[in-house]
Amino acid sequence: MTLNHKLASLLLVASIGATLGAAPVQAENAPTVPLSLEEIQAKRKEARENLMLPSLEGIRGIAYRVVGYKDYAPLESELGGILKEAGVPLFVATNLKPGDSPVDAILHITFYKTANHTIAELSLRQWVSLLRDPKSKVQAVTYSDKVFLAAREPKEAVTKLGQDFVRDFKKANSEKSTAKSKNDGRREASDNKKLKKSAKK
Predict the structure, then answer these.
(1) Cis, bond preceding 24 (omega within 30 deg of 0)
(2) What burial class does residue 117 get, using C-beta atoms within 10 Å of its C-beta: 0-12 exposed, 13-18 middle, 19+ buried?
(3) Where are the domains of the chain?
(4) Which tens digit of pLDDT belongs to each residue from 124-162?
């Protein structure tokens, strides 16, 4: 995954986060009608698929946790069960020990309230390099998603966020596997041609 993809993902998280917060200053010719929740969710889905999905490629292990909800243990258990479908080693972030590996990413689902909504946000953090200084390593959000929910529906929020993440994770890594298989096939075909030429000689 290129640094441009990582930076694009980080910029996207910041821009969408601003959209969901206070109302931005309107440009002179900009429409004054705010986006509906459905429109926001559709735009976030498109952004994840186009900009964030590449950041999931090649992740070898994930640490996870749920924060911001009093009775978090059942939700964390639910999240762990869903993440198993990703097919990589999993670790509860609060139980991580020195030497636990591989952990390439830390996934949080955080519950918080705004003036009008209760929101559950999934964020995935990874170590990345700065484009202007590749030697500088920083931890940054490379994948993010949010859902709006009633206070009585935390499990549904965890389920939706977790399932959407696993779907995107599988898609990112299945595309990598497909590309690798094609490259292996081309390499094998090339080797076979070389063997045939050698046999004729």
Answers:
(1) no
(2) middle
(3) 3-24+31-200
(4) 999 999 999 999 999 999 999 988 886 668 999 999 999
